[in-house]
Design brief:
The complex is a heterotrimer of chains A (about 375), B (about 525) and C (about 300).
Chain A (H helix, E strand, L loop, with lengths): L12 H32 L4 H14 L3 H24 L7 H16 L6 H30 L3 H19 L10 H4 L5 E4 L10 E2 L2 E2 L3 H18 L1 H11 L1 H6 L4 H26 L8 E3 L6 H11 L4 H21 L8 H27 L9
Antiparallel strand pairs in A: 1-4, 2-3
Chain B lengths: L17 E10 L2 E11 L3 E6 L6 H9 L6 E6 L2 E3 L4 H6 L2 E4 L11 H6 L8 H15 L14 H14 L4 E5 L7 H18 L2 E6 L2 H7 L2 E6 L2 E6 L6 H9 L5 H12 L23 E9 L5 E10 L4 E5 L6 H7 L8 E6 L2 E2 L7 H4 L2 E4 L3 H4 L7 H6 L7 E2 L2 E2 L1 H14 L16 H14 L4 E5 L7 H16 L3 E5 L3 H7 L2 E6 L2 E7 L5 H8 L5
Parallel strand pairs in B: 3-8, 3-9, 6-7, 7-8, 13-20, 13-21, 16-19, 19-20
Antiparallel strand pairs in B: 1-2, 1-4, 4-5, 9-10, 11-12, 11-14, 14-15, 17-18, 21-22
Chain C lengths: L3 H9 L2 H26 L7 H19 L2 H24 L5 H23 L8 E3 L9 H6 E3 L4 H15 L1 H11 L1 H6 L4 H28 L10 H11 L4 H23 L6 H18 L20
Helix pairs in contact in C: 2-7, 2-10, 2-11, 2-12, 3-4, 3-5, 3-10, 3-11, 4-5, 4-10, 7-8, 8-10, 11-12, 11-13, 12-13
Chain lengths: ~375, ~525, ~300
């Protein structure tokens, strides 16, 4: 998915500083533009933009306990994004994270009621089953790609709906995912709630609590960044992504690595699903699986990776920003403005974030007479 | 130049079709063209001779509107023009026959020919025109065939028809004969003669082949390192003089020997002197043996059809042949990129599975691929990384890449092979073609291969680089490596090989030792239909 | 409740099954036809959902303001093309990633139409029904195909028109070249990204119209849930159809039939595996791709952005 970026000749330090300044300015302008449009929309429909902004800030970080909630949302987003980076580096386009996450969470739910053993082990197993579920779902697309030549961009996309429906089916039967009548209360499609010793700990820091998922995500991010850059595996993966034929010559089997990368990608998404289940919180159904569980985290996580241009370390802050929008949006409703405005804001922001690289690229193409890759 | 013979008075010299004055183009630090002056007259074939990298392609791209010059003027039929787009060039009547870069495989011949024009689409008219042109120039083809199903030779026909369809006044042929047999080339050039004479067109023929220039062109501009260094008329020159101009110093042994070889074809004397591979072949057992290899291409046609070939250590076997006769598949086979339908590959007597990733490399077969961008280098990675992709374990410690060792390793190689770059961390795309080729060479030699496949190893290189590469190959052979040299340059083959094998139709058409080889018997073996 | 085979027979012989199928299929056909054009040009436009939704909303607003169905349809087209403008310009002029843009548009437009709907709440109705004489008497499918609110008949123009545009005009030839081999097309003097943008705009046009169709032929009022994933089914239809228009329309028909069947059989009180039926279009498409991988080829440059090297 990476675009051919035009390379400009190495520059001196001042030149570089100016260019960083240009970038910052472009980003500032774009983001401001997006917010301006959103604000205008609010005003035009009779609302006030200042309370909306304030509500967003309140909901995401300002009010007590909120930034913990935000981190709690950021965790799964980061995990999905990390997985997306892995498949992208291998040159694959995985856009089925939503389905992989959901399936992983479903598998995790199913097995959570089968396993016994001490608490911490259970939690680990739940997460593991989530990852396995997600990896298996992505594995379908991988198999289709390498044994039948079906483009993964298409199969992963189509599999999202298949996943939703498969899981919905599972939610209808008590022997699969549905909670027995007695524990369901008056809700129709929920699973049993996870036993309290099957839950991810939610350590509290300065009055904010958020599940261990966040730490897991950060650790995995560091591991992945290291792995991609410094291990033989990472070298081979990147080789495959850049030049599959050279990779084959060097002994990198497209099948093995490609299937592996796609499944790892799905595994991260499934892990996110499992973590959402075991990490609980009101953002994610309070330890119960239900229809619509994935709640667009998969799509958003994919967006995070794309916006971060597949850079592992950049995905961390960007996941946080997207999480802020989600948690902030729940406070917007109380200002009298329709809560949907946050979808609009998120959409505009992402588009805004896409503009600076595009503008710079165009300018480089027009300006640069530097060493360019003209492969004809 | 071929102006009127100054008999005084009379008509002024005819306005040239195209005049290039002071054309300069730089790509960053690399000067592709500098102060190029050139004139193309109507009714003449103007040859532009130069090694790859001399600037001919860039110059033509400027003329056709794909590249903008930094300085200089283009004058078409007496009027100065600015050609900033291929469409502008087309409007001015400038057409170029590309090398396979303008065909869409999924579409039919007539659709491809119609592509890029303006106005309502009229399939009937296009088909008619294709038949007309086909008859007129001897380029028959089925308008409804799917281009993707056509072999290389026929695809070129489509390219030519596509160009001629617009009735261009100035036609540029860019290395047109790389996929044609010698006979087909002759046919092509005689058609060109008709094109030029009857309709007063100007033709620019870009090539690096001396013999082509001598037989086809009316006048020749020789380019070297972006400049026009000489102008000659075929009737007043010969291959050696041309070679000398191309090369610029008296002489790289290769060009002169090759030039001599071409002109005479059977000079016995020099062949034993310093002939490549001073150690005789070790006929005990072959280092590499390919037996009855059969492979099919995407369309189902056989791209290797019972190929059998043997290589012994310390020898250089030159594989001659017109492009499209199995050279690429052979290179792919030995790069683990092509599975076989039947047949075997053996290294030192041990079978190597074809098509299994990395198997050939592990068996000790090094490859300098024909297109380094295709399977040789990774442009986005650094020089250091490119040097270790075949075997990272040189620089690892417990499966982790040790960055210090990597850098040190890379620096050693950069030094030894004199690779011009900004250091081990320089991105591969910042290196010139010649240096990229050195990286490939270095990497392959570092593995101490048993067999080294060099496919078109000096294509696109400047003279110094060619000399370097040739010497390295000779040295490697002397040290016992079995070398398979695949080249469409007969000069190169004649220069370096102990034995010559001719490839045609995916199999061996004939073999001979260097001393038995001549242009005639090689040409005969190479000939035969390719399409 | 009658026996299952009896129920199935009843469904297949009832007019309403076919009418429903025609309505579902009509929507899919509007979206899928445009998406087919877009994908033939090499773009993978996943903002079809957004285009449908935008078209539906703007057409509703258009009607609300003018009480004219014609104006509403035009407004719907404009709405779809507005979304297309963002998708096209950002992906194929500014070289942004088309998946990011597409996904974002889906979210953005969903939020935007939901938001505006609360504020504006346009009032709409279904359009007047036109009946084609004689043809509408054909058993079973007659009413479905020839006795519908009049915007339905636009399909009979749109589909052949699209076919003609792609296969018989120079524009279509250049579009197909851009989707198969953009490098060659570029060297031949074709502005690849321009053709791709135009293809996306075309998709916006048809999908915008499709959104209007939803309001004025099928549902009768706007609600942000009326599209409900049909955009993705339309994408599946294009793939199912092997990137031919015939196949795409066939896909629309098959998928619509499944939807209609589900509706009918549930209406008769049967509990069928509704999840299976809902997943069916996607499963069938995946299966089709897997089984016919060698015969069904996407446009070679599908979903790959084109950036010309430096001049």
């Amino acid at each position: 998915m990476s675009i051919a970026t035009t390379k400009v000749a190495p520059t001196s330090k001042t030149w570089r500083r100016i260019r960083i300044g240009e970038w910052l300015l472009l980003y500032a302008l774009s983001i401001f533009g997006a917010l301006l449009i959103a604000g205008t929309l609010v005003e035009a429909t009779g609302g006030d933009w200042l309370p909306v902004l304030s509500a967003l800030l309140d909901g995401s970080v300002r009010r007590p306990g909120r930034w913990g909630e935000t981190l709690g949302v950021a965790g799964p987003l980061l995990l999905v994004a990390l997985g997306t980076v892995v498949s992208s580096k291998a040159g694959l386009v995985n856009i089925g994270q939503e389905g992989q996450l959901l399936f992983g969470a479903a598998v995790a739910t199913y097995f959570s009621f089968l396993i016994g053993g001490p608490g911490p082990l259970n939690v680990v197993l739940i997460l593991l089953f989530g990852a396995i579920g997600g990896a298996a779902w992505a594995g379908i697309a991988a198999g289709l790609l390498y044994w039948r030549g079906v483009p993964e961009v298409l199969s992963t996309l189509l599999l999202v709906t298949v996943s939703t429906q498969t899981v919905a089916y599972g939610m209808r039967w008590e022997w699969l995912l549905l909670a027995p009548q007695s524990s369901r209360g008056n809700r129709n499609q929920v699973s049993e709630q996870l036993a309290s010793n099957n839950r991810l700990p939610r350590p509290e820091i300065f009055g904010n609590e958020f599940p261990l998922t966040v730490y897991i995500g950060l650790v995995l991010a560091l591991l992945l960044a290291f792995g991609l850059g410094r291990t033989v595996w990472g070298l081979r993966l990147r080789l495959l992504g850049h030049n599959p034929r050279a990779a084959k010559r060097c002994g990198v089997s497209e099948k093995t690595f490609g299937v592996g990368a796609l499944m790892i990608s799905g595994g991260f998404a499934g892990l996110a699903g499992g973590a959402m289940l075991a990490g609980g919180g009101f953002s994610f159904g309070n330890y119960q699986f239900m229809s619509g569980f994935s709640d667009n985290i998969g799509w958003t996580g994919l967006l995070v990776a794309l916006v971060a241009r597949e850079r592992v370390l950049l995905a961390v802050p960007i996941a946080f920003v997207f999480a802020c929008l989600r948690t902030g949006s729940s406070f917007v409703g109380s200002t009298g403005v329709e809560g949907r405005i946050t979808d609009v804001i998120q959409g505009l922001l992402v588009l805004a974030l896409l503009i600076p690289p595009a503008v710079m690229l165009l300018r480089n193409i027009r300006r640069a007479k530097a060493a360019a890759t003209v492969r004809v | 130049m071929t102006d009127s013979i100054g008999t005084g008075g009379g008509k002024p010299p005819p306005v040239p079709a195209v005049e290039l004055a002071g054309i300069t183009k730089r790509f960053g630090a690399v000067v592709a063209c500098e102060g190029v002056d050139m004139v193309f007259h109507r009714g003449q074939i103007h040859g532009i001779l130069g090694e790859n990298g001399a600037g001919k392609s860039t110059l033509m791209k400027i003329l056709i509107g794909l590249v903008l010059p930094d300085e200089g003027r283009i004058v078409v039929d007496g009027a100065e023009r600015r050609i900033h787009d291929p469409l502008v060039a087309a409007d001015l009547g400038i057409g170029m026959v590309h090398q396979h870069f303008s065909l869409v495989e999924a579409l039919s011949v007539w659709e491809n020919v119609a592509l890029g024009e303006k106005g309502t689409l009229d399939p009937g008219a296009v088909r008619e025109r294709i038949e007309e042109i086909g008859e007129q120039y001897g380029l028959a083809i089925d308008p409804d065939a799917r281009v993707g199903d056509l072999p290389a030779g026929l695809r070129q026909r489509v390219e030519i028809i596509k160009c001629l369809r617009r009735d261009p006044q100035i036609v540029i042929f860019d290395e047109p004969t790389s996929v044609l047999t010698p006979e087909e080339s002759e046919q092509l050039f005689s058609s060109l003669r008709n094109v030029v004479a009857a309709e007063g067109r100007a033709v620019a023929l870009v090539s690096h082949k001396l013999d082509e220039m001598l037989s086809a062109a009316d006048e020749i501009s020789i380019m070297r390192q972006g400049r026009v260094v000489d102008r000659q008329v075929p009737s007043e020159t010969n291959a050696r003089k041309l070679a000398r101009s191309m090369v610029g110093r008296d002489v790289l042994l290769r060009s002169e020997r090759a030039a001599l070889g071409l002109v005479g074809g059977d000079e016995q004397g020099h062949k034993d002197m310093g002939s490549p591979g001073s150690r005789g072949p070790d006929s005990q057992h072959p280092t590499l043996r390919i037996e009855e290899a059969v492979a099919r291409g995407p369309g189902g046609t056989k791209i290797l059809d019972g190929l059998t070939i043997e290589l012994h250590r310390g020898t250089i076997v030159g594989l001659a042949g017109v492009e499209g006769n199995g050279q690429r598949p052979l290179g792919d086979l030995l790069s683990s990129l092509l599975p076989l339908e039947s047949g075997r590959v053996e290294v030192d007597g041990n079978a190597v599975p074809a098509g299994r990733p990395g198997a050939m490399a592990r068996a000790g077969i090094g490859v300098i691929p024909e297109d380094r961008h295709d399977s040789g280098v990774v442009l986005e990675m650094t020089v250091a990384e490119n040097l270790v992709i075949t075997n990272p374990y040189y620089v690892t410690r417990r499966s982790l890449i040790d960055s210090k060792r990597l850098a040190a390793f890379a620096r050693e190689i950069i030094e030894e092979f004199d690779i011009q770059c900004d250091g081990p961390a320089a991105p591969m795309w910042s290196l010139s073609g010649g240096n990229q080729q050195r990286v490939v060479l270095a990497r392959e030699l570092m593995q101490n291969p048993k067999v080294l496949v060099a496919a078109q190893p000096t294509r696109g290189l400047d003279v110094v680089a060619i000399e370097y590469m040739s010497n390295r190959l000779r040295t490697a052979a002397e040290e016992g490596v079995a070398i398979l040299l695949i080249s469409s340059e007969l000069e190169e083959i004649l220069d370096l090989s102990n034995r010559i094998v001719v490839l045609r139709g995916g199999r061996v058409a004939g073999e001979m030792s260097r001393s038995e080889a001549s242009l005639e018997n090689l040409g005969l073996l190479m000939g035969g239909s390719t399409g | 409740m009658s026996s299952f085979p009896q129920a199935v027979y009843d469904i297949f012989t009832s007019n309403s099954t076919y009418i429903n199928a025609a309505l579902f299929g009509g929507l899919l056909a509007f979206a899928a036809t445009g998406e087919w054009v877009a994908e033939r040009a090499g773009t993978l436009n996943i903002s079809v959902e957004a285009m449908l939704l935008a078209g539906a909303f703007t057409s509703a607003v258009g009607y609300d303001l003018t009480d004219s169905v014609v104006v509403a349809l035009v407004a719907g087209i404009l709405g779809g093309m507005l979304v297309a403008a963002i998708q096209a310009e950002m992906s194929h002029r500014l070289s942004a990633d088309q998946f990011v843009v597409g996904l974002t548009l889906n979210i953005l437009i969903f939020g935007l139409t939901g938001f505006l709907d609360r504020e504006i709440d346009p009032a709409t109705k279904t359009a007047a029904r036109w009946t084609v004489p004689i043809l509408n008497k054909v058993p079973l499918i007659g009413k479905a195909l020839f006795s519908q609110p009049w915007p339905f008949y636009l399909l009979y123009v749109l589909i052949p028109l699209s076919w003609w545009l792609v296969y018989r005009t120079r524009w279509g030839l250049e579009l197909r070249a851009s989707g198969e081999n953009p490098q060659s097309a570029d060297v031949s003097g074709i502005d690849v990204n321009r053709r791709r943008r135009q293809a996306v705009y075309y998709a916006g046009l048809t999908s915008g119209l499709g959104g209007a169709f939803l309001i004025f032929v099928q549902v009768g009022r706007f609600d942000d849930s009326i599209v409900g994933g049909r955009g993705f089914i339309a994408i599946a239809a294009v793939i199912f159809g092997g990137w031919t228009l015939r196949g795409t329309i066939l896909g629309c028909v098959v998928f619509a039939a499944a939807l209609s069947f589900r509706l009918s059989i549930q209406g008769l009180g049967y509990q069928v595996n509704s999840e299976l039926l809902q997943a069916l279009p996607f499963l069938v498409t995946i299966l089709g791709m897997a089984l016919f991988a060698h015969r069904v080829r996407p446009p070679a440059a599908l979903a790959r952005p084109f950036v010309r090297g430096l001049r």
